[in-house]
# Entry
Amino acid sequence: MPLSPILDELGTYPFARLDEAKRRVAARGVRVLDFGMGDPGEPTAAFIREALADGIRETMGYPRAHGLPELRQAIAAWCERRFGVALDPEREVIPTLGAKEAIFSFAQVVLDPDRGKDLVVTTEPGYPVAERGARFAGAEVLQLPLLERNGFLPDLDAVDPALWRRAAVVWVNYPNNPTGATAPLALYERLVALAAEHDFLVASDEAYSELWFDEPPVSALQAPERTRLVVFNSLSKRSSMTGYRSGFVAGSPEVINALRVFRPSVGTAPQEFVQRASIAAWSDENHVREARERYGRKRAVLLDVLARKTCRVAGSRATMYLWVEVPGGEPSDAFAARLLEHGVVVAPGSYLGPSGEGYVRFALVPAEEECRLAARVLEEVL
Ligand SMILES: Cc1ncc(COP(=O)(O)O)c(C=O)c1O
# Structure
């Protein structure tokens, strides 16, 4: 049967193995407290749900790929309030069906093997979608390790300039999944300078930009030059709207124009009622503040028990994740399996990339009460 060989190369999604193990433990009657996957179980604010319902009309045609002008304006206004960056809603913003599909398909828009642009650069441990999309698009992929000794930032000086010249796009993701690290503006400044020198694009996945605890993280949009830069953001985490599928790409007018040409063929504009709900969500900060406070409380519960058990938390300045060093040099999947026997599900760092070995990731998605139950389990097990 003519199926893409990439499907086999990707193997089983490691989280499927975790699901199987969870079922076994639950069948023994153990209460499962699931910090494994990053799907927030938080409620979506009532005013957003109402805006969605109000957006349903008797007849609804195909949504236009470049979205409603009001949504592009709401996104541009948010970027200006949040990052102090003025974007032209016509030329520099395009709504997407969540960040994921746009991240996955981006390689198809930018690769140009005939010009020698056949490489996509990503980082690991990390969200696997940019890499997977690149492979399906036929690109070679270079994964830069994110190491604690470098603050979980990629070591750009370690990359051979010949590889930069082959790069069509270089992906970064801060605040970072899974390490929770944030990036200084200097990283983006350096990347846009390298992009100009070697003719590649910088793609910054900022899906967690609003889940912060001390100070709001910067955006790549604040870099001095946006000609070769696009950012991807989303309402999934900011507004607990994973099920709605709503995000955007913003930055380089040339790339946004390319997406306007590409996306109608794929058919990936958000439904108009989702766009109406998204306008409401981008226009309000109170519900985001409340979400941050909820995450902050859950985080405090776990930080407290981990500190008392002298379990070191690395990175973890922002996002909904805690990146915890495995104590005693135990392999991360063995440590995760041990916690799972007691009902606490965490993601072994090795599932997220080779440089994730030695850590586990707690996604702060269970309710506060469940975090307290988990703290009690950890108190005994660690
Ligand atoms: C780093 C990162 N980027 C993007 C996404 C995708 O978010 P969305 O729900 O907007 O597709 C996720 C989701 O987990 C993520 O972890």
